[in-house]
Automatic annotation (TrEMBL):
Gene3D superfamilies: 3.30.300.30, N-terminal domain of ligase-like (3.40.50.12780). PANTHER family: ACYL-ACTIVATING ENZYME, BUTANOATE--COA LIGASE AAE1-RELATED. It holds the Pfam family AMP-binding. This is AMP-binding protein. InterPro entries: AMP-bd_C, AMP-bd_C_sf, AMP-dep_synth/lig_dom, ANL_N_sf. GO terms for biological process: fatty acid metabolic process. One of its GO terms (molecular function) is ligase activity. Residues 6-162 form the AMP-dependent synthetase/ligase domain. Keywords: Fatty acid metabolism, Ligase, Lipid metabolism.
């Protein structure tokens, strides 16, 4: 904002009414926020159609549903992806001209991906997982299906971890920075994040992307927000559980009926073994100051008294 002599408007707390008030009174045209901020924006009773508001979102993968809800009221969403080790955003899901003729929903599915390396960085790849510094870096097929680890290289990537040569060598095996994020490469060169390696649910030997399950859950009309973790299961080792926050207009509904409806909705949209067997309704999800869900808190409570597979 300072570089372009624009006015910068700061919020002390993310509250829908205040956001919409400032968008109107201050003429806000650009803003940044995690997907949770976008949810707060579109869930608020004061929401209205706008014609000149662009939002950059990061910190967690936005669902196609939240992008659709934003664009239905004229909010243009751009998704960027990166880590602390890459000095913030490394990739950008750059809009393409041919997307303009697509339906809002189809365009949102494409815009929910993590995209391509930005002009200030070098390259991004998706490779078969490696474990040692001597393992070869082999790219997975660009088919949008084969999952691998996302690796980065470029001027924005850190030089290494402070006074930790061992961790640095492991992170940069093969000369590329290994993110620990799992994803796929699409034919158009855009990457799509599927999960953090530590967040993948392994149920009966099958790997389940919590992001895929979360996107299925949040596409149910009464659900505003969602987080999925793996919880203990005597037969399968672990199974997915969904924690959801309902939209304001649905919070007075019968909770058991909503839970059953969400499960049925998921069965119609994802494979049966990925469907959460139980739905926990919360008033809000535990989050960090930057809007990321504290899945470790949810896991600690769910795994209490069990031998925990995930730290």
């Amino acid at each position: 904002a300072m570089a372009t002599s624009a006015t910068q408007v700061a919020l002390r707390a993310v509250r829908g009414p205040k956001m919409w008030e400032l968008i109107g009174t201050e003429g806000v045209t650009s803003m940044c926020g995690a997907p949770a901020v976008l949810t707060t924006l579109v869930d608020d009773d004061n929401k209205r159609r706008v014609t000149n508001l662009r939002v950059v979102t990061a910190g967690a993968p936005p669902s196609p549903t939240i992008i659709t809800r934003c664009e239905n009221i004229g909010v243009e969403v751009t998704h960027v992806y990166g880590l602390t080790e890459s000095y913030g955003p490394f990739t950008v899901c750059e809009d393409q001209p041919e997307w303009a003729d697509m339906t809002v929903r189809r365009r949102a599915v494409l815009k929910a991906r993590q995209g391509v390396a930005s002009v200030t960085n070098d390259d991004v790849r998706v490779i078969e997982p490696t474990e040692t510094v001597d393992d070869a870096l082999v790219d997975v097929p660009a088919d949008g299906q084969t999952m691998g680890e996302i690796i980065l290289t470029g001027n924005g990537v850190m030089a290494g971890y402070f006074k930790d040569e061992e961790a640095t060598a492991l992170a940069f095996r093969g000369g590329w920075f290994h993110t620990g994020d799992l994803g796929v490469m699409h034919e158009d060169g855009y990457i799509q994040l599927l999960d953090r390696a530590k967040d993948v649910v392994v149920s009966g030997g099958e790997n389940i992307s919590t992001i895929e399950v979360e996107q299925a859950v949040v596409s149910y009309p009464d659900v505003s927000d969602c987080a999925v973790i793996g919880v203990p299961d005597e037969k399968w080792g672990e199974r997915p559980r969904a924690y959801v926050v309902l939209r304001p207009e649905a919070r007075g509904a019968d909770r058991e009926a909503v839970q059953d409806a969400v499960i049925a909705h998921c069965r119609a949209h994802i494979a049966g073994y990925k469907v959460p067997k139980d739905i926990v309704i919360l008033d809000e999800l535990p989050r960090t100051s930057t809007g990321k869900v504290r899945k470790n808190e949810l896991r600690e409570a769910a795994w209490e008294g069990h031998e925990q597979r995930i730290n």
